[in-house]
Amino acid sequence: MGIAFSLSLSESLTFLHVCLVFELLGPSLRCLLRSHGAQGLPLPFVKKALQQVLAGLQFLHTNCRIIHTDIKPENILLQLDEESLQKLLHDTAAWSQSINLGLKKPGILANQLDHCNIMKMGVKIADLGSACWTYKPLSKEIQTQPYRALEVLLGLDYSTPADIWSTACLAFEMVTGECLFEPQAGKYFSKDDDHVARIIELLGRIPPKIIFSWKQSSKFFSRQGALLRISRLFPCTLYNTLMDRYNWTKHEAAPFTSFLLPMLEYTPAKRTTAVKCLQHPWLSTQCPDQPCDSFSGDGTQNINLFHRT
Questions:
Q1: How many whole angstroms separate alpha carbon 180 and alpha carbon 202?
Q2: Can you give the residue ranges of the Protein kinase domain (predicted)?
Q3: What is the pLDDT confidence band of residue 2, given thresholds at 50, 70 and 90?
Q4: Topology of 2-8+22-80+116-284 in CATH?
């Protein structure tokens, strides 16, 4: 069934260049996130969408032996019902014409999703342009920075677990409206330095076995395993982050933390799989009847807003 949640190629044509014809889908999950601002998406939709993403990854990983390598909101497309899709196409065409005539300024597609019923939407994994076989990785540097797995940051070998790490980052962003890791370069350290530091702050010390399995470990770490260019850390567990910064209750934070942490396991071989994620009770637990904004906190307290100096 996982094939149903990956973008399908309808046909291909060759003229002066190759043309690929795909099924018609709506805008990306990024557009939907923008339409909801910083409050995140309704939990029932998040769970439904994650089930579909994980089913799609299960198909890619197990049946196709493919690593997607770039799971992020931009590469998850919305599946709309026929009526919503037709209205979206009409509105987009009218909007484009108005821009061409100089009547309106360019806007974002998110504004045109307001009329759609979110619980009628499905999602599909798209953009396999940088995907690779599990037995033949193409590049050492994969994934968009905020969704990049630790092993990729450290230049270690990677496989399907890298997609699971990215999916954990995606899940957090869907429920909070903010990136789990949003690294920033400073005067004396790189964006990668900050990224590794933020991972340690959230998930704890990286085992020396992982650090020193990398031939170029001295790029980030001292011989004692400490970060070279960032000495001051601000530790905060995922559980406490959800409660303190996003105002979740312990009954909301504990199950989601239980779902997410195995996806962020430092050792790729020990990291959970798409199959196991689909079996986690958090995904199938019915959400209480609460408004969407009850799961969002004060945006000024976001975990990623502070900037190291």
A1: 9
A2: 1-283
A3: low
A4: Transferase(Phosphotransferase); domain 1 (1.10.510)
Q: Which residue carries 């805008």 as its tokens?
A: 27
* Alpha helices in 101-158, H assignment, sequence order: 150-153
Q: Is 157 a catalytic site residue?
A: no
- Domain map of the chain by residue range? 2-8+22-80+116-284
Structure-block tokens of residue 29: 């999950």
**Contacts (Cβ under 8 Å, ≥6 apart) of 135:** 65
pLDDT at 295 over 50: no
Give 233's DSSP letter. Answer: -
Contact between 277 and 259 under an 8 Å Cβ cutoff? The reply is: yes
- The two tokens of residue 14 are 């060759």
Whole-number Å distance between alpha carbons of 2 and 209? 35
**Which one is catalytic: 70, 163, 193, 194?**
70
